Amino acid sequence: MSGGRRRLETLATLTGVLATIALGLAAGAMLAEAGVLVPWWRFLPPEAFLIWYAENASRLLGFYGPLEVIATALALGAAALAGHHRGGGPWFVIAAVLAFAILLMFPLYFQRVNASFADGSVGADGVSAALAQWAGWHWARTAIGIVAFVAALLGARADVGGASMRSPAGDPTRHRALAELEVGLRALATAPKDVGRLALIVRRRADGIRETPERVRLTLEEGVPGDDWSRRPPRDPEAQLAVMQHAVAELLANGQPITVFGDNLFVDLDLSTGNLPTGTRLRVGDAVVQVTPKPHNGCKKFLARFGGDGLRLVQAAETRHLNLRGIYWRVVEPGCVHVGATITVLARPSAPVR
Question: Which of 263, 269, 268 is nearest to 296 (CA)?
């Protein structure tokens, strides 16, 4: 991840946290006003309420006004950085819309009614009805404020930590026996050799969450921008893009999310050594990639996620040439790729294909 992008991500996360705190304070203040002040106002004789309100109107505005403005400004800031959040962007957009709606309610309704209370123009006879209506509007904005706070809280949670897709450990109840895996492997449809398809893109974020964007731009510097590969010094260019055959991944996952593998690209294409030897060049969408010599082997994480028999299947001498665990590619020409993009073999080391 580039320094500029990392700074924007940090700024987005910080702004989101501050917006959440401000929205929580604003919602709490409105709730206290609705539950304490409003009942007391309605208990007071109309004349006493008007005297009290005239004396304290400026204090009320001086307290609640800045709180709402600051909360809305921070929420809008967090929403403006939606594309740089670590997962909470959509929630902050919702929070910002709701916070702005609360702010609009002041000039549309509260400013006029509050002024009538402060200058006494509502009259003692009109206080009861006006306060009842004011209370209804206030409970409405309080409810909106609580929803805005909850939305921001969900956004901050997604940004800071604790999504269900973080560092997946795998589900042992989904592990398949070797015999079952071998039967399933033989039943798979023959993968295309020269023209295939990109089935899934996975980006492993810094906080462990695994995103599945519909499209990305593969780059020479980062591979999949924002992926964990670029944060593992020293970067190994031969392991820039981890690639796996989609059907094999589904067989091994046995109902678990495909993202549990941690590979970047899942493809409908024959990845065997015989079909894609080291040095083979392929076009994926608008990008060009090359098969690297680095072997893609199962590890302790693979063992935990798919069981001992799953590991034996991909490492067995008789199936090793099939590259069931996958292979590595590196980007040689940057370009945009998307789920469903065509993958075309451009040239193998022995002879050009096209």
Answer: 263
Residue among 298, 214, 310, 215 nearest 254 (CA): 310
Q: What is the pLDDT along the chain (354 residues), one digit of tens a residue?
A: 444 666 787 788 899 999 999 999 999 999 999 999 999 999 999 999 999 999 999 999 999 999 999 999 999 999 999 877 766 889 999 999 999 999 999 999 999 999 999 999 999 999 999 999 999 999 999 999 999 999 999 998 877 643 334 456 678 899 999 999 999 999 999 999 999 999 999 999 877 788 999 999 999 999 999 998 987 777 899 999 999 999 999 999 999 889 999 899 999 999 999 999 999 999 999 999 999 999 998 888 899 899 999 999 999 999 999 999 999 999 999 999 999 999 999 999 975 444
Contact in structure between 253 and 261 (CB atoms under 8 Å): yes
Residues 6+ apart with CB under 8 A from 263: 202, 242, 243, 244, 249, 326
Give the 3-state DSSP-derived string for the chain, with helices as H, strands as E and coil as C.
Answer: CCHHHHHHHHHHHHHHHHHHHHHHHHHHHHHHHHHHHHHHHHHCCHHHHHHHHHHHHHHHHHHHHHHHHHHHHHHHHHHHCHHHCCCCHHHHHHHHHHHHHHHHHHHHHHHHHHHHHHHCCCCHHHHHHHHHHHHHHHHHHHHHHHHHHHHHHHHHHHHHCCCCCCCCCCCHHHCCCHHHHHHHHHHCCCCCCCEEEEEEECEECCCCCEECCCEEEEECCCECCCCHHHHCCCCCHHHCEEEEEHHHHHHHHCCCCHHHHCCCEEEECCCCCCCCCCCCEEEECCEEEEECCCCCCCCHHHHHHHHHHHHHHHHCCCCHHHCCCCEEEEEEECEEEECCCEEEEEECCCCECC
Does residue 18 contact residue 92 with C-beta atoms inside 8 Å?
A: no
Cis peptide before 334 (omega within 30 of 0): no
Amino acid symbol at 180 = E
